[in-house]
Structures are given as structure tokens and as C-alpha cells.
């Protein structure tokens, strides 16, 4: 590095080094954590906007490392995707979620996020089928969430995989709807169970009339497709009421509750202890 602009050298370089060190550390530690089941799902509840009843749980991976502290999935999922650890990580989260949801309820569905690299690097269909058999969770209680980014490559393989999973009876949910790959053709090539409206639309809904039109269009599309709709990132009563009045069925967000342990789900929503 050059000497001259002193401020830059002093501040910029150590930050880069710290970031790089953190990433290397995450990469080195994540595999071990997965082996020891140190990555666990937390669960964020979803609610029926009409009745206010809990309607599903979304499993979100959580990792606490003795030195690194809590590492966000926004940080370790991309690392896991590039290192290949996403395959055992995905299996661990899926298996734990299918087991734990049955501790709190005998009807509530659970959603698990599926990453693109699981679809391409793993026998994901075999894995899901075995997991359902091992845990005894009925297939219709499992929802697998994929984002539009799965359609970036080898579309036929993606449809085939989603169709096989769907044939098991598993529900397939389109996550972060409206933010990714913008061709709408994939909506018609597969029978989606559910669309999840990304939270960026929630923020914009009150600021911009066109956004409201887009949301109304998404809801109309979902109705045509006979798919459920979940709005994500609901933080205020105004947002909840707006989406309810537009006919959106389900909501998820900090207004209702953030991701929490299965013990807290049991206590808060089922008035029992997860045994
Ligand atoms: P996502 O699937 O879109 O999950 C929703 C994210 O929004 C979660 O972040 C959740 O904590 C956060 N969130 C929920 N309600 C609100 C709200 O009202 N306001 C705001 N601002 N945020 C809210 P989280 O848990 O940090 O997960 C981030 C992303 O990491 C997820 O986004 C998902 O793409 C990925 N991820 C998490 N767990 C897994 C996993 O087990 N497997 C895979 N493949 N990806 C995962
Ligand atoms: Ca999700
Ligand atoms: Ca989402
Ligand atoms: Ca997201």
C-alpha cells in the first residue's frame, strides 16, 4: 500500500484484515459447529391476519460461537453456500425443525429455507423424503421456501426438483417474491403453494402509490394461482391493517414476534413446555 493518505492506511487496512479474518474464522468454525449441532433453528411465527391466530413457523438458522458471538445467517449462509457446508447445515436445520414443530403442535406447519446450492449439490428430494420418514412429520406440514434466484441457472432441473418435492405432498413457497429475477414466466410453470411478499414492499407501501398497485397485483396473481400469501417484515399496526385490508391472508414480522427458541414458541403460543 502507498504511504501518502495516512488516514486511509490507518483505518481502511485493519478493517479489511479484520473482515477477512472473521470470514476465514467463520469458514473454519462452521463445519465443526454443524457436526456438534451448534447451529440451531429459531422459529418466527406467522399469523392469520383475519383471526390473529398463529398459522405457521419459519425456521431460521442461528449460530452462537464462543469467540465470534452470534453470527447472523446473512453472514454464514453465503459462506456455507460457497464452502459446501450448506448441505449438512440444511439437513440439520430441516431435521431439527421437523422434529421440534411436533413438540408444540400436531397441526402447525413449519417452513424451512432451501438454498440454490442444495438444489444443485445434493439429492435434496431423497434428503427431504428420508427426513419426513425419520421424524414422522406429515409432508403437508412442511413448506420449503425458495427464492427467485433458483431460476438463474438450469431451470429445468429446478422445476423437476420442485415438482418431485411437491409430489411428496410438501408445499413450495416462493420467498422474497418481487425482489429477484424479474421474469414472471416461472409463476406459471409450477403450482406454488405460497408467495411471500418481501418486506421491501411493506416499507414502500405507504410512500408510493405505485407500490400499492404492485402489491394489489401480486395478491390478485396469488388468488388466480390459488396460492397463499404471507407478507414479511410487518413492524407496525398500520402495515398489518393495510395488508389485511388488501386481502393478504398471513403476516410475519417484529410486530407479532421475531425468531425465538422452540421453548419460547411453546410458552408464548401454546401455553406448554416443549418437552
Ligand atoms: P428470509 O428467509 O427472508 O428470512 C426473513 C428474515 O427477516 C430473517 O432474518 C428474520 O429474522 C428477518 N425479519 C423477520 N421479521 C422482520 C421484521 O419485522 N423486520 C425486519 N427488518 N426483519 C425481519 P435472519 O434470521 O437474519 O435470516 C436472514 C436470511 O438468511 C433469511 O432471509 C434466509 O434467506 C437466510 N437463512 C436463514 N436461515 C436459513 C437456513 O436455515 N437455510 C438457508 N438456506 N437460508 C437461511
Ligand atoms: Ca424465508
Ligand atoms: Ca423472505
Ligand atoms: Ca430475504
Question: What can be said about this structure in brief?
Answer:
One of its GO terms (molecular function) is cyclic-guanylate-specific phosphodiesterase activity. This protein has helices at 6-35, 73-83, 86-104, 116-121, 124-135, 155-168, 185-188, 199-205, 209-225, 237-245, 262-270, and strands at residues 39-48, 54-65, 69-71, 110-113, 142-147, 171-177, 194-197, 228-231, 250-251.
Main-sheet strand order equals 1-2-4-5-6-7-8-9
On the 0 to 100 scale, the average pLDDT is 91
From the helix content, strand content and strand pairing, which structural class follows?
A: alpha/beta
Radius of gyration: 20 Å
Beta percentage is: 15-25%
Total beta strands: 9
Oligomeric state of shown chains: single chain
Estimate the global geometry from the Cα principal axes. globular
The helix content is: 40-55%
Bound molecules: ligand C2E, calcium ion
| H-E order | HEEEHHEHHEHEHEHHEHEH
Uncertain spans, ≥5 residues at pLDDT below 50?
none
Main beta sheet strand tally, sense and closure: 8 strands, mixed, barrel
Give the helix tally: 11
Distance between the termini: 58 Å
GO molecular function: cyclic-guanylate-specific phosphodiesterase activity
Keywords: Membrane, Transmembrane, Transmembrane helix
Domain EAL: 23-273
Organism: Roseibium aquae
Amino acid at each position: 500500500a502507498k504511504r501518502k493518505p495516512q488516514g486511509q492506511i490507518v483505518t481502511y487496512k485493519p478493517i479489511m484484515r479484520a473482515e477477512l479474518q472473521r470470514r476465514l474464522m467463520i469458514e473454519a468454525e462452521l463445519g465443526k459447529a454443524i457436526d456438534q449441532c451448534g447451529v440451531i433453528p429459531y422459529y418466527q411465527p406467522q399469523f392469520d391476519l383475519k383471526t390473529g391466530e398463529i398459522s405457521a413457523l419459519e425456521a431460521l438458522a442461528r449460530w452462537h460461537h464462543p469467540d465470534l458471538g452470534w453470527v447472523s445467517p446473512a453472514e454464514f449462509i453465503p459462506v456455507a453456500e460457497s464452502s459446501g457446508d450448506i448441505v449438512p447445515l440444511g439437513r440439520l436445520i430441516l431435521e431439527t425443525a421437523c422434529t421440534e414443530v411436533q413438540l408444540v403442535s400436531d397441526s402447525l406447519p413449519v417452513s424451512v429455507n432451501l438454498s440454490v446450492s442444495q438444489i444443485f449439490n445434493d439429492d435434496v428430494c431423497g434428503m427431504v423424503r428420508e427426513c419426513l420418514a425419520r421424524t414422522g412429520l406429515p409432508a403437508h406440514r412442511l413448506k420449503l421456501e425458495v427464492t427467485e434466484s433458483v431460476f438463474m441457472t438450469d431451470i429445468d432441473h429446478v422445476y423437476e426438483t420442485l415438482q418431485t418435492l411437491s409430489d411428496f405432498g410438501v408445499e413450495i413457497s416462493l420467498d422474497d417474491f418481487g425482489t429477484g429475477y424479474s421474469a414472471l414466466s416461472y409463476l406459471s410453470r409450477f403450482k406454488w403453494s405460497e408467495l411471500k411478499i418481501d418486506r421491501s414492499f411493506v416499507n414502500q407501501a405507504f410512500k408510493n402509490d405505485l407500490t400499492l398497485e404492485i402489491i394489489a397485483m401480486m395478491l390478485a396473481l396469488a388468488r388466480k394461482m390459488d396460492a397463499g400469501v404471507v407478507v414479511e417484515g410487518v413492524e407496525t399496526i398500520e402495515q398489518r391493517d393495510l395488508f389485511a385490508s388488501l386481502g393478504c391472508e398471513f403476516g410475519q414480522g417484529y410486530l407479532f414476534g421475531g425468531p425465538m427458541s422452540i421453548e419460547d414458541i411453546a410458552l408464548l403460543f401454546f401455553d406448554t413446555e416443549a418437552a
